[in-house]
Write a structure and sequence with these properties.
- This protein has 54 residues and is mainly α.
- The chain has a domain of 35 residues.
- It contains one helix and no strands.
- 0% of the residues are buried.
- Belongs to the neuronatin family.
- Keywords: Developmental protein, Membrane, Transmembrane, Transmembrane helix.
């Protein structure tokens, strides 16, 4: 019974570390996406400002 509990605890710890790594990767992806969207938005607004002075 103790071996089962130890194996279970080990799997829980491994799962927690995998979850943390995936969370960090997801956060990085969201930051990169937000940067790309804001940069694209600034480019679009810049183009509109340049095209519509009249």
């Amino acid at each position: 019974m103790a071996a089962v509990a130890a194996a279970s605890a080990e799997l829980l710890i491994i799962g927690w570390y995998i979850f943390r790594v995936l969370l960090q990767v997801f956060r990085y992806s969201l930051q990169k996406l937000a940067y790309t969207v804001s940069r694209t938005g600034r480019q679009v607004l810049g183009e509109r400002r340049q095209r519509a002075p009249n």
